[in-house]
Design a protein that fits this description.
Length: 773
């Protein structure tokens, strides 16, 4: 705010000083920070907190990171809509003869494929001949795993009397037909925990069915079977309990049952010995492994992490459908690319997952919505998700969320610091700083996700805590600033009109812009009897008395929307303002004058029966409204001929014995008030005559005798203006016989008597020249 005068400059400096950060500001900042931090923590700990982070935060991190390179040693053989037609098979893959799968296995073995995983349901027997061909191919391959179905249902519980007491959820593994189950080395389920329709996680081990390893985990162990003996030696060196119960050689693991037993034993060893994983890692990092290849060390490290890790893990998606090398089923059977005729990709040693995956059909079976679902609606297939989970295990690229206690700490600290930051400074500084801090946090979270696969809380801090802190912090700033402005405005309004005080404290204005010439009604009031009252009072007592008087009068004036109120000694100057004469409601100042007289009477009673006599003068016109003064002291004043005339009319009351005098222009529009014209007066110090009207009160409350008085006075005044001094004397005397206290009649009687005595004759007898104020 910029002012020219010292008064306003000091006011502005005072405001600036009070806006500086103080102890109270710090306390509020800390409170907002604590609330912001707790809001985030409570949300994160609520049932929807983690799901909110998955749906929003984790999805955003994947989206911003984009696709990454998929592992080179895993591929998907896709059963899609084109395979049936190309191979001359039934349109539904479930109707295919299983001999075709046997042919596929033979082809993959011939191509040097590593472990072969079928994510296809083989729980029902079909053609014995075709089933046998498939089983024979699987047995000869010695590297095939089939999926098991995990069925869950609720079982009722009964008491000894056979009454149902509740229920329990049970899950059961359903293996493929015995002919196939006995031929394979691996059997495993692949249940996916869904959050609504989204998939974010997978099971590595399923506790509900005895810590059974799922398809991705079993696939990793099958890949490592060629290293079984050195892996066993490593575990023995690490001191694994019950290792003597494990098969000593790879050749002893020929069935899925044996493989499951090995994996269950190792899983439980890791769960019961929490330091085992560290011991194994120390051995892998020691000289013991110098003779091992980096590839073998990677496999051992992956196994160590897999067995020691949680049952449920987060998927690190590589990208949209088809990011993992995907080869159509019919291309493997035909030995070449069915579209281009080119050779097949190198499958030597690769993990092969076989299942339904159509990159062109949004309605493909076994599909799951993920953050990488394509715009055309094609989702990731279950088999590609299984391949993704295997790739995560093999390369140790699973997404690792921060622990519960760490997440709570990060969320709380972020919210706390943000809340403090937003309120501690002014909005123009705090908002950019808060957004910068939030941006840096989001960038850091994104970097850790992309570089280290670590998932820090993101949605709660950015989407919940940031807007909350901004809203509460800025709202609190606004309310405090508003309260401070109101205090300033109230303080300034003691000396200035309300609208001027508001402009000074809320707007960037130059004080000179407040100075203007307006049109309005000026209202002048004087406390008759002030000199008598002031005698015998100390200055303090007199000041207290005057403040009480002005407070009472000001309240009466406020009832009628006075715009400007100015106090001087024992006088009051008010104004009702507008841009033009048509903007003024003249009834308000007239009614305010009547209200002020009533207030004076009540004040007299309140103050113990004193005898103050209120007088009011009203005039309308143009006048100056603004600040005046010098020497560093300013006042807000009403200046101009209109104000002077109002003051003169107020003084005229003393000569006429009246209480409210207004110019005819002010009183003309008030038909509901009883008025009487008192003639035209040339007031002291003025040249232009003013038609003066006395305002007596509302017509419906005036006594009939007063109405009759006004009528008789009007008749007498007419005779006076005709310069018939004798008759005028008689008529005014007759009026005073009935109402001896009527001041205007006394005034004109004296003038009539004087004119009769001096035989005066006037050019304009309607004018009265006043030589006194």
């Amino acid at each position: 705010m910029k002012f020219n005068q010292p008064f306003f400059g000091k006011l502005n400096n005072l405001k600036t000083e009070n806006l500086k950060v103080d102890t109270r500001h710090w306390k509020i900042s800390v409170i907002i920070g604590l609330v912001s931090g707790l809001i985030g923590v409570l949300l994160w700990l609520s049932p929807v907190g983690v799901d909110f982070e998955k749906h929003v935060g984790l999805a955003w991190l994947f989206d911003q990171r984009g696709a990454i390179e998929a592992p080179d040693d895993v591929a998907v053989v896709a059963i899609n809509s084109n395979a049936s037609e190309d191979l001359g098979l039934p349109s539904l893959p479930r109707d295919w003869p299983r001999s075709i799968h046997g042919k596929l296995v033979d082809k993959l073995v011939a191509l040097g494929a590593g472990t072969i995983v079928f994510d296809v349901n083989f729980q029902r027997a079909k053609s014995p001949e075709d089933d046998a061909i498939f089983a024979d191919s699987v047995s000869r391959a010695e590297r095939v795993m089939l999926v098991e179905i995990l069925n869950g249902k609720r079982q009722p519980l009964f008491d000894a009397n056979g009454q149902a007491t509740g229920s329990i959820w049970t899950e059961q593994l359903v293996s493929p037909i015995p002919m196939l189950s006995e031929a394979v080395i691996g059997l495993a389920p692949f249940p996916l925990p869904k959050v609504q329709v989204n998939v974010y996680q997978y099971w590595a081990f399923k506790p509900s069915v005895g810590d059974v390893a799922t398809m991705p985990a079993t696939a990793l162990q099958m890949k490592a079977l060629e290293l079984y003996e050195p892996w066993l030696a490593l575990l023995q060196k690490a001191g694994v309990a019950d290792i003597e119960n494990l098969p000593k050689h790879r050749a002893e693991i020929k069935t899925a049952h044996n493989l499951r037993k090995v994996m269950r034993t190792l899983r439980r060893s890791y769960q019961s010995d929490l330091t085992l994983a560290d011991r194994v890692e120390n051995i892998l990092s020691s000289e013991y492994t110098n003779k091992m290849s980096a590839k073998n060390i990677r496999v051992f490290r992956s196994l160590n992490i897999m067995y020691a890790g949680p049952d449920n893990r987060y998927l690190n998606f590589y990208g949209p459908p088809g990011t993992i090398t995907t080869i159509p089923y019919n291309d493997i059977i035909n030995g070449e690319n069915s579209i281009t005729g080119s050779a097949l990709p190198d499958l030597n040693g690769k993990m092969i997952f076989i299942g339904f995956s159509d990159l062109y059909d949004p309605g493909q079976p076994d599909r799951f919505y993920t953050v990488f679902t394509r715009d055309d609606g094609v989702d990731l297939s279950g088999v590609e998700i299984a391949a993704t989970a295997y790739g995560n295990l093999l390369s140790n690229q699973a997404i690792t969320p921060t622990g519960a206690s760490q997440s709570v700490l990060y969320i709380f600290i972020f919210g706390f610091l943000l809340g403090v930051l937003i309120f501690l400074k002014s909005a123009i500084i705090s908002v950019p700083l808060a957004l910068l801090a939030a941006g840096l946090y989001a960038a850091g979270v994104q970097h850790m996700f992309a570089a280290e696969n670590i998932w820090f809380p993101l949605a709660t801090p950015i989407i919940v805590q940031l807007p909350f802190a901004l809203l509460i912090g800025l709202l609190t700033q606004y309310l405090l600033e508003r309260k401070m402005q109101q205090r300033y405005s109230k303080a300034v309004s003691y000396y200035l009109p309300d609208h001027v005080a508001k402009e000074l404290t809320e707007k960037e204005i130059d004080a000179d812009s407040l100075n203007k010439v307006v049109y309005g009604v000026c209202f002048a009031n004087d406390m008759s009897g002030f000199s008598t009252i002031s005698q015998g009072k100390t200055p303090e007592e007199l000041a207290e008395f005057m403040n009480a008087y002005f407070e009472a009068m000001a309240q009466a004036l406020k009832l009628y929307d006075v715009d400007v109120t100015e106090f001087h000694a024992d006088t009051i100057m008010c104004a009702w303002t507008g841009e033009t004469a048509n903007d003024i409601d003249r009834s308000k100042p007239l009614l305010a004058a009547l209200a002020l007289l009533d207030t004076v009477k009540q004040f007299n009673v309140t103050m113990g029966g004193i005898n103050l006599n209120g007088r009011v003068g009203l005039e309308e016109g143009s006048f100056y409204l603004g600040h005046t003064g010098g020497g560093g002291r300013m006042g807000f004043s009403i200046l101009g001929d209109c104000a002077n005339t109002a003051a003169r009319l107020e003084g005229l009351n003393k000569h006429l014995g009246t209480h409210i005098l207004a110019s005819e222009a002010v009183a003309a529009s008030s038909d509901n008030l009883l008025q009487r014209s008192l003639g035209k007066f040339v007031l002291k110090g003025q040249a232009t005559p003013v038609p003066v009207v006395e305002v007596l009160g509302p017509k419906d409350k005036i006594d009939d005798n007063i109405i009759l008085l006004c009528e008789r006075f009007s008749e007498a005044l007419t005779i006076y203006h005709q310069q018939n001094w004798s008759l005028a004397c008689d008529m005014f005397e007759a009026i005073l016989d009935g109402t001896p206290e009527d001041g205007p009649s006394k005034f004109y009687l004296e003038r009539s008597q004087f004119n009769l005595k001096t035989s005066a004759q006037y050019d304009d007898p309607t004018l009265v020249h006043m030589d006194e104020k």
